[in-house]
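Lay summary. Proteins are chains of building blocks that fold into shapes, and those shapes determine what they do. In this project we predict the shape from the chain. Here is one chain we studied, written as its sequence of building blocks.
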Amino acid sequence: MADHQPPPDRPPLPPSRAAFDDPAFVWPPFIAKGVDPDAFVANNLQAGVDIIEIPRIAGVLERWGQKFLDRVYTAAEQQFCRGRVPELAVRFAAKEAVSKALGTGIVGIRWQEIEILIDRRGRPMVFLHGEAAARAQAINLTRWAISMTHEHTIGVVFVVASSGEGGQYLATDQH
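And here is the predicted shape, written in a compact code that computers can read:
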């Protein structure tokens, strides 16, 4: 199967992550051969963002109900949200944003391994479990900040993660 290439007046498409396994391949040009792409974590600072259409989650809930809730959300998240679709939707987007900050997308991580709860002041907190916590530890991400907002039809989440002690929210392997 031939790779799709952009028109000649545009730069080439970036390769899939599997291309990094080929020692002869260099992308982008500044990455030296044989260097692990995870080593290019600028000062161990990562970000993730996601936007979600709230009616999309409403449709999924209508179709799949509790099966969807149990697959994606922890018991604590379900208890907090109490079926409120905007709260569920923005947490879904938060899980996507956190997975982007981890550099994996949701691949290799279960939805429930990223948990979004609130502190006593209502500020959202990130808790990581299982493979998500292992990935954060592997790339030394220990401090997490998250901002979530939603209105009638759209939810937006922005996540920043960094290394260091005294983090606002620490990754944990305790569930």
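What the prediction tells us: The longest strand covers residues 45-53.
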